[in-house]
Amino acid sequence: MDLCLVLMITSFGLGMVSTHAELQRFEQPAKTDGKLSFLVLGDWGRRGDFNQSEVAHQMGRIGEKLDVDFVVSTGDNFYDDGLTGEQDKAFEESFTQIYTAKSLQKQWYSVLGNHDYRGNAEAQLSLHLRKIDSRWLCLRSFIVNAELAEIFFVDTTPFVKSYFIDAKGHTYDWRGIGNPRAYIANLIKDLKVALRESSAKWKIVVGHHSIRSIGHHGDTKELVSKLLPILKANNVDFYMNGHDHCLEHISDTESPLQFLTSGAGI
Ligand SMILES: *[C@@H]1O[C@H](CO)[C@@H](O)[C@H](O)[C@H]1NC(C)=O
After folding, report:
1. Any binding-site annotation on 79?
2. Which GO molecular function terms does the record list (predicted)?
3. Which domains does the chain show, CATH number per domain?
4. Cα–Cα distance between 86 and 141 in angstroms, integer?
C-alpha cells in the first residue's frame, strides 16, 4: 500500500465521531485500492496574487494525476491578517474562487497560522464558512483518520511565546485559548493519548510552525522542547508544517521522524 505525499513547492504558495480524548476526530474513507494521496500547502490566501492562482492551477493538474483524497493546509490561510469575520469576502476570493479545479473539490483540512490569529481566528472555525464552501474544515486541533494514515493537527501558534510578549504591533485573537500554559498542557496531554492509542501504519502530525527548519524563521524552540519529545516517543513518521515559505525535508538523527516544510510565499 502506498502513501503518496506531494508538497507544493513554489511561491505561494465526514463523518464525525468524538472519543476518549478532547480532540475531535474525522473519518476520511480510503480509496478502494487502499492507496492514499493528498496535497499539502500552506501560507496561501492572497486573492490569487503572488502566483497563488498559478500554484492553484498546478495543484489542480497534479491533484488529478494523483487522484488526491483531500488537501491539507498548514495555516496562514488568509493574508495579511486572517479573516475579519464570517462575512469576509476574502474567504471566497482566496479560497472558493481560486481552487476551482475538479480534482481539488475534496475535503480540505486546515489549521490556523500566526497570520490567521491576527484577524478573527474564530471566524475560520465557523460552520458558516462550511456552508459557503463545504470543502472547508478548519479547527484548532483535531484528528483525521484516513485508515492507512492517522493525521494529528496541532494548533502551534499559542506555543510561541514571542506572540504574547513581543507582538511587534500586531494584535492576536486569543479568544478561546484562555491561559496559554494550560491550553498547551491540555493539548499535549490529549495528543499523547491519541498518538499512543493510534494503530495507523503512518502517523503524521501537522502544524503551522516548523519544529526543525533552516529557513527564515528557523527552529521553533517551544516546539522542540514541548512537541518533539512526544512525536519521537510515539513513533511519528512525519511532521508537516508551513510558515517558512520554502520546501524542506529534514531527517531526525535519533528517530525515523521526518520534518517536511511545504508551501511558501511571503
Ligand atoms: C510569479 O512567478 C513568476 C515565474 O516564476 C516570477 O517571475 C514572479 O516573480 C512571480 N511573482 C510573484 C509576485 O511572486
Report:
1. yes
2. acid phosphatase activity; metal ion binding
3. 3-262 (3.60.21.10)
4. 20
